[in-house]
Design a protein that fits this description.
Layout lengths: L3 H12 L5 H8 L3 H15 L2 E6 L7 E9 L1 H12 L4 E7 L4 E8 L6 H6 L6 E14 L14 H6 L2 H4 L16 H9 L5 H8 L3 H13 L3 E6 L9 E8 L2 H12 L4 E7 L5 E7 L2 H12 L7 E12 L11
Helix pairs in contact: 2-3, 9-10
């Protein structure tokens, strides 16, 4: 379990993923060394990672939420194989270990290879359903609110990216370009890599890296996400919620769900179920109470399927496995 400083550090990184340790320390009233030491400990013990990711729409990517069922022997090997691909994220083993839930990122150039060719030819798979992500209410640039409850409004303002940026935004509507790929790969491994390290990995001058980062972040073309093992935050019970809502009420229901701190992800999708959410609760009993008291109080939900998650095989980073939770 995390203490108040740990939680404040995670909150600070969610506001500004590349904020210097010295600035976090000044805002929290602790030393730079304390912040750096806490960050390294949380990396080792709670899977804490800051990663830089492109906004999917700005980068010309589509996202699909894929549900696969497989034989018990094949499911774990398949989840592991999927986790090694750069076009997948948020891979989870669910339903007693026979179901895999994953986000697949596609572009027009790749021809949906994973969805149309690789998965259908994989032995051991007994069913596949692919749900196009139409709109994110929680997830991606809109992070899980339960990780951001520690700092005061004044502390949040002191850490805002606008206050911290030393590089002016030099362009309007900066987009992710093919030439940014090395930078994105580096940020997907470590969003807090120094400008000098990023310069070494991209072959650019440090000043060029700093300007490009400022443009991409200020325009919203990239964002910085925070990965941390939910168990460390006290959320030991996880489940996917697949909801059916009449189209006329789907947006209102999704916006209501997005206000719930129990949900780390809320999205509108195609398919028989048109809303999906990822619930994180302290216990099975807490999940039951959440479903009956809070979700049950929302009108117009006509069907709800609750699928328990056993383990996260891969989180948001393109080339990193997730915490084993």
């Amino acid at each position: 379990m995390l203490d108040e400083i740990d939680r404040a550090l995670i909150h600070a990184l969610q506001i500004a993923g590349r904020v210097p340790y010295s600035r976090i320390g000044a805002v929290l009233g602790v030393s730079t060394q304390t912040v750096a030491r806490r960050y390294q400990r949380l990396r080792a013990e709670a899977g804490l990672r800051v990663i830089g990711l492109p906004d999917p729409h700005r980068a010309g990517r589509s996202q699909w939420l894929v549900r696969l069922t497989a034989t018990p022997r094949a499911a774990q090997d398949l989840a592991s194989a999927l986790s090694r691909r750069s076009d997948t994220s948020w891979i989870k083993l669910a339903s007693g270990g026979t179901e895999i839930v994953a986000i697949v990122h596609t572009t027009p150039a790749d021809g949906n290879t994973l969805l149309l060719h690789d998965i259908p030819r994989t032995t051991g798979i007994t069913s596949v359903s692919a749900h196009y992500l139409l709109h994110l209410y929680v997830g991606g640039p809109t992070a899980w609110g339960a990780r951001a409850t520690t700092l005061t409004p004044a502390q949040e303002r002191a850490l805002s990216p606008e206050r911290l940026s030393r590089e002016p935004f030099s362009g309007v509507g900066a987009e992710v370009l093919p030439t940014d790929q090395k930078l994105l790969t580096a940020l997907g491994t470590d969003g807090r890599a120094t400008v000098a390290d990023l310069a070494g990995q991209t072959g650019w001058a440090p000043a060029t890296v700093a300007r490009r980062l400022a443009d991409l972040e200020a325009s919203g073309a990239i964002f910085f996400d925070v990965d941390v093992d939910p168990n460390a935050l006290g959320a030991t019970t996880a489940a996917m919620l697949w909801l059916t809502v009449p189209p006329a009420h789907a947006d209102a229901v999704a916006r209501a769900l997005a206000q719930h701190d129990e949900l780390a992800f809320v999205a509108a999708t195609t398919g028989r179920t048109n809303l999906v959410a990822h619930a994180l609760c302290p216990s099975p009993d807490a999940l039951h109470t959440y479903l009956t008291d809070r979700v049950g109080a929302i009108d117009h939900i006509t069907a709800l399927e609750t699928v328990p998650i056993l383990r996260t095989v891969k989180s948001a980073a393109p080339n990193q496995a997730g915490p084993r939770a």
